[in-house]
Design brief:
CATH architecture: 3-Layer(aba) Sandwich
CATH class: Alpha Beta
Number of strands: 5
CATH superfamily: Metalloproteases ("zincins"), catalytic domain
Strand order of the largest sheet: 1-3-2
CATH topology: Collagenase (Catalytic Domain)
Helix content: 40-55%
Number of helices: 7
Largest sheet: 3 strands, mixed
Length: 173
């Protein structure tokens, strides 16, 4: 659901439903999930004000954030029924995209994948959890044609160190 009508303009002509659908399909494929029955994921594209209210209510943090995930299934449970909700804040996502020198559509893609992985049970509370989750994100994003969001940029060239090249992707995956 698009609750902030500025989202479509932020995506430079990209179709938000297609972006979200592709994120979920690629995540299901890369994570090798078994779909036990029809499943539904709710994605809300909102603004910082609503995101801050949700973050305060559900996480006791009185600030906005780029993405929130509310799982309705147990971690790593069979994929069926209502899986949960992923909520994204337009202003925060746009500012982060600009700072990271990427398109809003690519950053949205990353955050939908990140949020969906949280719904499935992945987390980043420990180093090993973080490595596992980031590896999955990188692989899903590569499948979608989006660069590695965790690669460092070389100051002199602006090219991200470790960014997957086609050669590296084919060997890595």
């Amino acid at each position: 659901m698009v609750r902030d009508d500025r989202w479509p303009r932020s995506l430079a002509g990209r179709d938000v439903k297609e972006i979200i659908s592709n994120c979920v399909k690629a995540s299901v494929d890369i994570c090798e999930l078994e779909i036990a029955a029809p499943a539904e994921l709710s994605v809300l594209l909102t603004n910082d004000k609503e995101q801050q209210a949700l973050n305060k209510k559900w996480r006791s943090q009185d600030k906005t954030t780029n993405v929130l995930s509310f799982a309705q299934i147990e971690p790593f449970a069979p994929v069926k029924g209502l899986l949960g909700d992923v909520v994204l804040a337009r202003e925060t996502v746009s500012v982060e995209a600009r700072r990271q020198q990427k398109t809003v559509a690519d950053h949205l893609t990353h955050l939908v994948v990140h949020g969906f992985l949280h719904i499935l049970g992945y987390d980043h509370r420990t180093e090993s959890q973080t490595e596992r989750m980031q590896d999955l994100e990188i692989r899903v994003l590569a499948r979608l044609g989006v660069g590695d969001p965790y690669a460092k940029k070389q100051p002199e060239t602006g090219v991200r160190e470790g960014a997957p090249t086609m050669e590296r992707q084919s060997r890595r995956y």
